[in-house]
Amino acid sequence: MSPSFGRGAMTNSWSDLKNAEVFLIAGSNCAENHPIAMKWINRAKENGAKIIVVDPRFTRTASKADIFAQIRPGTDIAYLGAIINYIIEQKLYDQKYVLNYTNALLKVSTDYKLEDGLFSGYDAKTRKYGTASWGYQLGPDKKPLKAESIEDPDSVFSKLKAHYSRYTFDTAEKISGIPAAKIKEIADVFCKGKPASILYALGMTQHTTGVQGIRAYAIIQLLLGNIGKAGGGINALRGEPNVQGSTDMANLVSNLPGYLPHPINTDKTLRDYLVRNGSFFEKHIVAQLKAWFGENATKDNDYGFSLLPKTNPAVNATMVKLFEMMNKEQFKLLFNVGSNSLVSIPDRQLVRSALTKLDMLVVSDLFEIETAQFWREPGVNPADIKTEVIMFPAAFVYEKAGSMSNSSRWIQWKDAALEPLGESLPDLDMLDHLFKKIRKLYAGSTDVKDAPILKARWDYGEHTSALKVLQELSGYDETTGKLLPTIGDYLKAPIGTASTGCWIYAGVTGNGNLAARRNNADPSGLGLFKDWSFAWPGNVRILYNRASCDEAGQPVDAKRKLIWWDEAAKVWAGNDGGDLVDKTKGPDTPEGKLSFRMNPEGVGRLFAATYMSGLPAEAPADGLPAIGIRPAGICVDGPLPEFYEPTESPTTNILHPEVSISPCALVVSTQIGKSDKFPHVLTTYGVVEHFCAGGITRNIPWLNEIMPEPFAEISKNLAAKIKVVEGDMVEVSSARGKITVRALVTDRLQSYKVNGKDTETIGMPWSWGFASLSPGPSTNEITIAALDPGAGTPEYKVCLVDIRRAN
Ligand SMILES: Nc1nc2c(c(=O)[nH]1)N[C@H]1C(S)=C(S)[C@@H](COP(=O)(O)OP(=O)(O)OC[C@H]3O[C@@H](n4cnc5c(=O)[nH]c(N)nc54)[C@H](O)[C@@H]3O)O[C@H]1N2
Ligand SMILES: Nc1nc2c(c(=O)[nH]1)N[C@H]1C(S)=C(S)[C@@H](COP(=O)(O)OP(=O)(O)OC[C@H]3O[C@@H](n4cnc5c(=O)[nH]c(N)nc54)[C@H](O)[C@@H]3O)O[C@H]1N2
Ligand SMILES: [Mo]
């Protein structure tokens, strides 16, 4: 959502959850998937906090809830929109916060509109939006015009009010299946408790409107003044061990490490890149180029900018798209590290076919997972497969040193506890061996496309040191070769004299390895633990914490003081590190007022407008395009969250039947089902006993014993209708395929009404495949490959199916 911070991380932290007065847990089953979250939630509950859970199923998390609402999968924006409407109508918002810390007063372009489910700027041919009309009205100084009051019809606040006035509790009930009175109860309880925390994970993100759902959370939390506060925030409970670290390190197609925008094919020079992305990124991309290319990155050669690979934004090769390209024979080699795509990718026939198109597949994993054995899946004749498959046995987490970053943005160091088993190696050593061998093969080449490999700085030692890698991320003074002590030293260094491999990690190893700190003192009692490991950026534990203070820089919540302006010492002091541009700039200075310093407006964004700050009033005399400072992160599918039906849905969108599903959704599956043939909604989820695609856990006998096989969980109503009892085998089919599993008949799923029509949700775990000690059918045989247009996340949480007794 933003080109800088917060691409899915907690604004707060695990241990901060204990400070909340109320929780909305919607789209997360943390009791089963994130038990550490539950530990801190339970502490808050002991202190009287209220828990609201919204889920299509009654989960173990729901069993702890004061309010539980069963929702039709994929309809959260409908009830969240109704809550936004209620907050505005009943004036439940935090007036001061909204005025001072959000863009409520800024005037929106008069060209902006939403009509029949389409925002202005839609191009039906490309199914994409032109976003020019989503901007602000700008003054002659190129800054957004500010309205006198939020009543001004052009203000962001008025646009928000008009947009959500259509979302009544009754409309939300018709769409989501949650009774109107229950939605009102959720709104009342959530808005009354301050601070209030929102937790989410896959139940919100795995939709074609995933990003917009999280935007709806942001709007609610900004209106209520809950961001930047202890016990508040929006907390993305991230999944895979170190998924936070891997996205920090650019395991995302549109980013370089530290969430720097990835250069694209039209960026011929560093200047072109800065015209698109703003001067804010100059220091960071140059520091990264220095880290990657060392002495081969100089001012004279544009710091080696031409050595960086460029992406084609029209391709946007997120995971599913990548397999689509592979299936069109656009790749010869796949290096598959720590992922079991043949089980985890939706509509998995695409993966099955794509892998056969490769010349070579290298799999690095602990076990010979399904992906590595695709050539001997039942039904496949190995003689037909031309792909050569090579297995690299990988060392496990306890067998290697390194840092892992958790959802709280804490970078935590660990040492190796065991020697790697057999011939297995840490992935870092594998990469190091490979890189050195490849560089040897390329030696002497004058081909420009080989230059990045030949010019890279690669010095992690004879026996690779993970600490050296973390030090490279932390950063060096390139003039002395010494580590830069802190992020402040990095920021002060003139451009071209400092390197960091990932600027948000700057300082992590500057004064010793701070990631290895294990001091669990917590003097404030707020769970900040600031001497335990290191949180990016700059050890700030709660992002946007300037917003926890009033205009005078004093904490608004006396019980939960994060930072404050110390007038005598003329400095921001506090229990937490200040999320501030400059700690010596007081609350009445322009810098000291910025509550959301990473946004170009400096405030939280109720309306995700297009905007570049810092553009000069006059065009530059040299005729070159001007360089601004910082662009706003936008959502490609609209500046305000709007409800769209999932790609496969049992009903049409009652808000705008002509534009029923997201007009921008990227639908990759070729077979799309309709509700006449496939009347039920399927949702997929994880189970405690297995981990993701099950590569590890299905090889652990005692886990297999307690969770031996996949199942389809159905309501008692549905069971009676299809004449099935618990334990019977059922065939679940979608437009893409069918699988046979055991029926699990429970009260955890209930029949419900959608727009007057009886509807059923079927729940299925997805952790099985044909290999391992305990094989079973893969649920992704039937799921749909339809992607969120911004994030590329597949709509794993909703598709249409039919179910019947097998034989
Ligand atoms: N034991 C165990 N722990 C895990 C994992 C595991 O496989 N096993 N996986 C790890 C990974 S990689 C991840 S990403 C996380 C995932 O953590 P979670 O997101 O908690 O995992 P899920 O069970 O997929 O989905 C969460 C809940 O969302 C609900 N849901 C489905 N659709 C909707 C919807 O439209 N709206 C709402 N409000 N809720 C919906 C589901 O019923 C489910 O209870 O867990 C991590 N932890
Ligand atoms: N239907 C459906 N499908 C889903 C989801 C869903 O909710 N529903 N959830 C999605 C989500 S959130 C995720 S994250 C993906 C996960 O999908 P994948 O990433 O494909 O699945 P994992 O099982 O997590 O694969 C991780 C592999 O890494 C291996 N491994 C562990 N440690 C190491 C190591 O140190 N080095 C190496 N080289 N290998 C290692 C493990 O043995 C395992 O096989 O699945 C997605 N698929
Ligand atoms: Mo995940």
TrEMBL record:
Protein's recorded name: Formate dehydrogenase (Quinone-dependent) catalytic subunit
Q: Where is the Molybdopterin dinucleotide-binding domain?
A: 682-799
Q: Which organism is it from?
A: Desulfosporosinus lacus DSM 15449
Annotated family: Belongs to the prokaryotic molybdopterin-containing oxidoreductase family.
Q: Which UniProt keywords apply?
A: 4Fe-4S, Iron, Iron-sulfur, Metal-binding, Oxidoreductase
Keyword Iron carried by entry: yes
- Please name the Pfam families in this protein's record: Molybdopterin, Molydop_binding
> Any keyword Oxidoreductase?
yes
